[in-house]
Amino acid sequence: MNFLLTGGLGYIGSHTAAVLQQAGHHVVLLDNLSNSRLEVADRIGRITGTRPVTEVGDVLDTIRVRMALRHYRIDAVVHFAGLKAVGESVAQPLAYYHNNVAGTVSLLQAMAAEGVRSLVFSSSATVYGQPQYLPLDESHPTSATNPYGRTKLHIEQMLHDLAASDATWRIAILRYFNPVGAHASGLLGEDPNGIPNNLMPYIARVAAGQLPHLNVWGNDYPTPDGTGIRDYLHVMDLAEGHRAALEHLQRTTTPCDVFNLGTGRGTSVLEMVRTFEQATGQSVPYRIAPRRPGDVAECWADPTKAQRVLGWRAERSLHDMCASTWAFTAGQRSAPAPHILAV
Ligand code: NAD
Ligand code: UFG
Q1: How far is the CA of 198 from the centre of ligand 2 (A)?
Q2: Rounded-to-integer distance, Cα 311 and Cα 303, Å
Q3: Is position 77 within any domain?
């Protein structure tokens, strides 16, 4: 089948592109390069044997999206494109509403006009807000504490409204928990600009000697070791979850449905540090620091609906998440300049 991946050069999109190509599908990547590099398409090509067709463009450009949908005879869209930094969304809310919400309206208008009504959307466990119970299932109440989270909630509501207006839509909303790790080749991974906000890329930079120590944001939470607990999920498992969702859309009669993608297991910050050290042999010095505003103590998924309906389950271990992150990080440090890789 032919799939359009908006934001397909980004962290999750690139892994998903590799998985879909290796399953025999054709993918077209549409990305405005705001948080990625074209060279990623070459790397997907080195992994799969085929460099994916890549359109440098913006989902806000409705005409451009329509042309791509028509030209490549797209069967379904996976919508990864979006801005995702919580702190930045507080400082620049309009940029987030414009890019994420208006960008999705533009994409949906293009899809409706071209008669492409199958969509997988990247949502987030952030829509559960402060957990009222654990594990979090899909019927847990939703709320948002920052503009980024509100863009995801607005988009989810818009997708439900759209499906209610026209039952021929087939939409899977995927709520990701904490994606980490990298492709086994070491060619794809998460490489944020500047100082990372998220735990795993920060740990990797400390292990690489690029940052002096990890700040552990709080050790006084009501958890066994006092540090925050999250449901970390291997990005390759997540990529395979998209393949399962796309296949599900071909056979379902439900216009719009929501799925958690997580492992169902919680891991604390200190457990993650220890596992990283064991998996890589690198030391990760850390200091206990005050809590980070807005953080919840614990958050993990009930992933049983995805297993039951999509036939998908996360398989890879925390050890693998750490080892693959390190293989990618170490490879980046020794890699030739991007222009050489692109030749
Ligand atoms: P990413 O930043 O690596 O990838 C997003 C890609 O979208 C980038 O390549 C960027 O250049 C592109 N993009 C942004 N705005 C665009 C636009 N208007 N038009 C075209 N391209 C655009 O992020 P990611 O981690 O791969 O996340 C993908 C999606 O998953 C996002 O929607 C994000 O909110 C969601 N998500 C991510 C996480 C996570 O922890 N990584 C967790 C939950 C949800
Ligand atoms: N942490 C540290 N030090 C750091 C970074 C993080 O101790 O330098 C801790 C946090 O306090 C938290 C845990 O590590 O306890 C995980 O933090 P992340 O920033 O990696 O992940 P979050 O769960 O806070 O948030 C992420 C994304 C959100 C998304 C959410 C759910 O950043 O956008 O997962 O998918 F909404």
Answers
A1: 5
A2: 11
A3: yes
Domain that holds residue 37: 2-334
Q: Is 177 in the pocket of ligand 2 (CB under 6 A)?
A: yes
CB 322 within 8 A of CB 271: no
> Could you please report the per-residue DSSP string of 24-86?
T-EEEEEE--TT--THHHHHHHHHHSSPPEEEE--TT-HHHHHHHHHHTT-SEEEE------H
**Number of folded domains that form the chain:** 1
Distance of CA 114 to the CA centre of its chain: 26
Residue 341: per-residue pLDDT: 38
For 171-188, what is each residue's pLDDT tens digit? 999 999 999 999 999 999
pTM, to two decimals? 0.97
- Of 11, 178, 227, 287, the one to substitute when testing ligand 2's pocket (max ligand atoms within 8 A of C-beta) is 178
Question: Which CATH number covers residue 216?
Answer: 3.40.50.720
Q: Is the CB of 176 under 6 A from ligand 2?
A: yes
Per annotation, catalytic residue among 128, 148, 176, 221: 148
How many A from CA of 116 to the centre of ligand 2?
A: 35
Strand extents, DSSP E, 184-330: 214-217, 229-230, 232-234, 256-261, 267-268, 286-289
pLDDT in tens, 46-68: 999 999 999 999 999 999 999 99
Token output for 290:
């005050």
Ligand 2, closest atom to CA 177? 35
Q: How far is the CA of 125 from the centre of ligand 2 (A)?
A: 11
Ligand 2 pocket, mutate which of 122, 150, 217 (most atoms under 8 A from CB): 217
Q: Which ligand is nearest to the CA of 206?
A: 2
- Tell me, yes or no, whether 224 lies in a domain: yes
Q: How confident is the model at residue 335 (pLDDT cuts 50, 70, 90)?
A: low
Q: Is 148 a catalytic residue?
A: yes
Q: Is residue 342 part of a domain?
A: no
DSSP result, 29-44: EEE--TT--THHHHHH
Give the pair of three-digit tokens for residue 79. Answer: 């919508």
